[in-house]
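[step 3/7] fold_predict: job queued, chain A
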Amino acid sequence: MSRFPVRPARDEDLEAIGRLGARLLREHHAFDPNRFMAPGADPEGGYAWFLGTQLAAPDVLLLVAESDGGEVAGYLYAAVEPRSWAELRDEAGFVHDVVVDERFRGRGIATALMEKAASWFRERGLPRVVLWTAERNPAAQRFFSGLGFRRTMVEMTRELTG
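[step 4/7] structure written:
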């Protein structure tokens, strides 16, 4: 179990979360620059701004894990997603991001964040949690499989230009 306390994110966490989210964006863009958006000039600020818009949303969960010194060691962004006929999916919890600073990896932080999110979804009566992981990120796929996630869909992308 992680010794890093997990708590709801606050406004003062957004700068640190923005840095971690920008790293996630850069990593995904490096995996496939045609599929994933380019980081742009200020992805840290963009991510912090976006997640700041989500803080007060009632169906959104934004968590941070704190180091002993009060530093944001990781974060999780998730939401309750309504039934989707387009995705052939009933209402579910959806984990959009889970990121742990490299300095703190391997200490159970991502697991603690994911389990806290699972509890939050369970309290809301949701039957399942869904997430996406990049095709070129086998470490994340192994991690999620280890938490009981199974493959259910494969996203495929075709470029229409070039």
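[step 5/7] annotate
The CA atoms of residues 57 and 67 lie 26 Å apart.
The chain is about 35% helix and 20% strand.
exit 0
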